[in-house]
Predict the 3D structure of the following.
Amino acid sequence: MKIHLDLLLINAFILTMDQSDRQIDGGYLGIRQGKILDVGVMREDLSEQYSPEEVIDCSGKIIVPGFISTHAHLFQSLLKGLGRDLPLLEWLNSSIIKALPYYDEEMLYMAAKAGICDNIHSGTTTIVDFQYCHVKNNLDFAVGAAFKDLGVRGVIASSRTNGEKLPSSSASKYIESEEQFFYSVEKLTAHFRNNPLINTAIAPCIIWDMSEDGFRNTRRMADALHIPVTMHVLETLDDDIFCQETYGTDTVSFLEKCGVLGPDFSAVHAVHLTDKSMQQLYEYGSSVSHCPASNMILGSGQARVPDMLEMGINVALACDGAASNDNQDMLETLKIASLLHKLESRNPSVMPAYESLKSATIRGARLIGQDDRIGSLEIGKEADFFIYNPKSDSGCMPLHDPVAALVYSAGKQGIESVFVHGNRVLSEGVIDKETSILESAQQQAGILIEKAGLGNFKKSWIQREE
């Protein structure tokens, strides 16, 4: 009796990203009930073994595990191009902080949907949204609704910004206390506990946004709820300056003292790690979320990624927020991650293409504690992947090396279809209702910047035709 499949993909070049680093030329992928039932080299008896509802012939195409962007701020999708050419704190004060108080549920929802669309087009199937727009209660749920509507896998990393420290001209009417923050994380986690695609994390925003007791309670809550911890760490030297002045020690040592470090902890950016702090992250099995594009745009510096990888630290990739990167393009991030470290070291062998791919896939899964489910194409894992068609991307043709092509040449136009849990979220380059989503996001962006006094126009210059 033949085995039923929902989907069978045949004649593909498959990058499995498994522990053996298998690359299958002329391979097949069998999907049933959202999971990978079989993967291997094409054989004559496939038609005798399987009865698929749908067959996709991927001749000349590449199947890749879905990218995992380990750090985003989806609310920032409404703020692209504002506060440019400024260092981190000046950029924050000139754009993000001015806009934050004016966000509402609809703005955040449309911002998230627009950002998710950008992610999908670049092959991303899982997004860790570091959600610190807490100017009203329960705004995290708007991100969850966007994840659900577009069918992608998401981690809502609920974060707290200390509103009491914002300038009075930009202060929100709602100032979330640490107690309210912890309650909201518990409520959010309970709500999504049984959702197969959406998970949560706890995300103290930065070293000065939480008290010492708050950091200790962060660890207690993470352990009690079995959720990961993620945090901006040493994006600039300001973290260590604050920590030395306030606690008499460096940032990573303070986090160690508070019990925050662990295998479920990820340090975002980690640009200015010392040898000592790198060793501490390694000893605790912590990960690093590397955001090369935003680090370059804001002039924050270059993380010591080759040193981290050599030491054995798990380093994953991320786009960061759309206001500090101006897009959510993981293909671009892959290329930048490879080129940036070659430049700094003056060594072209540093951060080879396959290392970037690992950081965008299986290492990202490891960072969020889901490497047993996603990040590679293996039997029993979730069917999260994309189909790349180099013939639709002139930048990739002629093609000789699929890995080099994906990292150094590929553009979004070559990403043909994207699947999450076996379901198409991008089909033939199209996301359902995307035009309407982007038009609505543009309208909400116009309302936001007018209220906040940002930008140089009063309302959206791209409007739906009446």
